[in-house]
C-alpha cells in the first residue's frame, strides 16, 4: 500500500466533516482537516444555531402580550438589535473555539486555507501538497440568488445575521424553511415583513395541511404573504430598494433578503479534474458508503444534496469513519428523519406526508387531524391555533407520518420520531397514556379518523 501522509484528509470543517475527522482519529486514523472560513460550518455560524437564537428573540413580543392576561404588568417595551446581534456573535465565537479544541483533543491536524484536490490522493492547501488514502469532501453549500437585474442590492441568510441595523421594512423572497423562518423572525422583531414566493404555497414537500395552516397563522399575525409572485428586477430609489414584480406591481423596502435555496460549494476545487462526477447543480452522486465516482474520494452533507440537515451530515460522518476505520461498513438509514421549521409558530414533522403515503399505499389510509387553541391561549386570548396530524395505513395500522404546527413542535417531534423508527402502530398510540394537560397528549387521544384515502395535494 502506498505511503500517504494521512489516512483521511477532510475538506470542510462543518458538522459532518468534523464528526468524520474526530471519530476517524479516535479509531486510530491519521487525520487532517482543512477549513477556509469557520469551524462548525453553516449550522453553527450562519444557520441553525444563530437562527434558533433569533427565533427565541422574535417570540418575546407575543410572550409579553400574553403575560398581561396572566396578571403580569410589563413595562414599556423596546428592542435593541445590536444587543441581540452581538450576543449571538459572541456565542458563535465560543462554539468555534469548542470545535477547534475538540478536533485538537482528538489528534486531528488542523489546517487553515482553501483546499484543492490535485489528484485522487492529493490535496493542496496554501501551496503545499499533502497525500491521503482517502479524501472527504464536506464543503457544504452557499446561498443561491437568481441572476436578476439589481441582485447586488440583496442580502442572503449569511448577511442577515450581521445587519448593521434592523430594517423598518423587509421583503423575504423564497418558499423554503429558511425564508419562512426569517419572515417570522423579522416580523416578531417588529419589522414590517412581506414574503414572496413564486409558487402557489410555500414549504413544498411538507404536508399540505401543515403548509396551509401555517400560512393562515402567519397571515393572522400580520405577515404579508404573497404567493405566485416573483421579483423581476430591483433598483434603488431615495435610499430604499424598489422591486418590480412579475405582475408589474412594485414594492418598496429597506432590505430585500433572498432565501431561494443553496448550492454545493463543489466547483473550482479540482473535483472534476480528479475524476469526480458532479450533477448539474454541483451536488456529488455517491454510493451507500459515500464513495464518489473516484473511489478514494468521498462526500457527505450538503455537498451530496440528500438531506440538508445537520444531524444527517453528522450521521453520515459517523458512518464514513466506521466504514473506513472501524471495520463496520455502515450506511445511513434515511427513513423517518425528523425535522423542524422554527417559524412563528414552529413546525415539527417526521415520516410521510399524506401525499407521499397516498403514492405508496393508495387510498388505504386513515387521516387523523386535530386543530385547537392551546390551554395557555384560553387565558391569553392569543388567536394562534395548533394543528396536529397523524397519517396511518389502514391495512397494517402502521403510523407513517406525524406532523404538527404549534409551540414546541420541534421538541415534541423527536419522541415521535423514535416511535416511528420503532414501528409504532396507531393502536400503540391509542394505548399510550397522555401527559395532562399538555398539547402533546393530543397525539395519543385522536381516536376518529377525519377521512380515509387522501386529499388532493397542493402544488
Structural class: alpha/beta
Characterize the overall form. globular
What's the CATH architecture of the largest domain?
Answer: 3-Layer(bba) Sandwich
Distance between the termini: 54 Å
Name of the CATH first level of the largest domain: Alpha Beta
SS summary, helix count: 12
The average pLDDT score comes to 96
**How many discrete domains?**
3
In the CATH scheme, what's the topology name of the largest domain?
FAD/NAD(P)-binding domain
| Number of E strands | 22
The CATH superfamily of the largest domain bears the name FAD/NAD(P)-binding domain
Radius of gyration: 24 Å
Into which percent range does the helicity of residues fall? Answer: 25-40%
The largest pleated sheet is described as: 7 strands, mixed
Strand content: 15-25%
Structural commentary:
The structure is a single chain. The protein has 459 residues and is of the alpha/beta class. It has three domains: 6-143 and 263-325, FAD/NAD(P)-binding domain (3-Layer(bba) Sandwich), CATH 3.50.50; 151-260, FAD/NAD(P)-binding domain (3-Layer(bba) Sandwich), CATH 3.50.50; 339-452, Enolase-like, domain 1, CATH 3.30.390. It contains twelve helices and 22 strands. The protein has helices spanning 15-26, 41-46, 48-68, 81-105, 157-160, 177-188, 208-221, 310-325, 354-361, 375-380, 409-421, 426-431, and strands spanning 6-11, 31-35, 109-112, 115-119, 122-125, 128-137, 141-143, 169-173, 192-197, 224-227, 231-237, 240-245, 250-253, 255-258, 262-264, 297-299, 339-341, 347-351, 365-372, 386-393, 399-405, 451-452. Strands 1, 2, 3, 4, 5, 6 and 16 form a seven-stranded mixed beta sheet that branches. Strands 17-18-21-20-19-22 form a six-stranded antiparallel beta sheet, with helices on both faces. Helix 1 runs parallel beside helix 8, helix 3 crosses helix 4 and helix 3 (48-68) packs across helix 6 (177-188). The termini are far apart. The mean pLDDT is 96.
